[in-house]
Amino acid sequence: MRVLTKKEAKEYSPTALAFYGDCAWENLVRRTLVEKGNAPSGELHSRSVEMVRASFQSSAVDLIEKSFTEEEADIFKRGRNVSGISVPRSSNPRDYHRATGLEALFGYLFLIGEYERANELFEVVWNEKQGK
């Protein structure tokens, strides 16, 4: 898979970035859960579902937003401010839009090959949320 330039990645719509970022975020969640200990798949699934919910992702933004670079903040805002998306009944609009912004950022970071930065941001969330 080819790593995109920042210019190329910025040409993608925020919803396309969020689409890919949803997968990137879930991959980080699942990998970290497995790394932290062997458990039955049902338990791993239950724990992962909690961490991919819009409410969790929105609260994750609170933990890492201050450490965003200017460029990362711009990508997050593009995703957060996207219009025309349907908010599921299980979520509130604020959380859902912030989660979309987070997913757009992680999609962008993965597309440009900034895996280390994505891991760094994710680890902050993981450590704060797990109390470690």
Please provide a written account of the structure:
- The protein has 132 residues and is an all-alpha fold.
- The protein contains 7 helices and no strands.
- It has helices spanning 6-10, 14-35, 41-52, 54-64, 70-80, 93-111, 115-130.
- The longest helix has 22 residues, at 14-35.
- It is globular, with a radius of gyration of 14 Å.
- The mean pLDDT is 94.
Strands, helices and their partners?
Layout: H1 6-10, H2 14-35, H3 41-52, H4 54-64, H5 70-80, H6 93-111, H7 115-130
Helix pairs in contact: 2-3, 2-5, 2-6, 4-6, 4-7, 5-6
Characteristic key phrases:
about 130 residues; about 0% strand; mainly alpha
Question: What is the CA–CA distance across the termini?
Answer: 34 Å
Low-confidence stretches: none
Tally of separate helices: 7
The general outline is globular
Summarize the structure.
With 132 residues, this protein is mainly alpha-helical. It has helices at residues 6-10, 14-35, 41-52, 54-64, 70-80, 93-111, 115-130. The longest helix is centred in the N-terminal third of the chain and has 22 residues, at 14-35.
